[in-house]
Amino acid sequence: MKYSLIYPNKKGFCDPDIASKLAIKAEEAGFSTFLIWDHYGMPEGPDTVDAWCMLSYVAARTSKIQIGTCVTPIPFRPPAQLAKIVSTVDILSKGRTILGVGAGWHQPEFDAYSVWDSTSVRVDKTIEGVELIDKLWTNETVEHRGQYFVSKKAELEPKPVAQPRPPMWFGVKGPRMMKLAAQYGSAWIPTMISPEEYKEGIQRFSELKQELGKSPDVHGAIQIYEPPQTTDEALRDINSYAEAGCQEYGIVWSYPESEGVKRVEWIANDIMPAF
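RE: above sequence
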């Protein structure tokens, strides 16, 4: 089992020194991934930082741990601009960057900073946006005129360090988004899903990849919103998802600041050796 530290981008967690301290400790402890929520507002309030700016700060202070978002709402930003942003962070991190992919769910942040559409349109925009991002990462010159986005003679240089592209992790469940995940995704990372639902979802992800002529071997991750408090609780939960096919257990690090680093040590010393 691998482990992700998922940093909650919300009030009380906007200090880059706290984020980088946890990322450094997680890297030292053997965590595989440091992910951050990508939001410009949360139900708890407007206090957030730009996730990609925070990741560039973390990239400068780490050297091995993968870094990325969990997840980026693709319709929120112009996808061509997002492709450049992610590529830049991948260069700064020397090829360690993950683009988490979702369609967005929190209407107030879209109303304030972007455009809120129906679920169907947001999914349409996500599909077209991911296709455009992939083109920009893998082609010298891109001409794109779609239903929602246009790029004329776009040349994204320098290319990302990760080749052929930075990995995309999909935090999705619906059928259209699962098909998109099968086409472009390196991993599936849902949240608020039972082990039984997880087993069905990861099997479907594998089947969809196989239907596209891709390898059915998939990387299954999970975002655990409520962090475990005891060793026994953590071991039971991790084991239940491992039996369902999960390979990377991601904990939303909502522990108080005073406990944050100690909790990393707890996972490393008491949990990791069991798996």
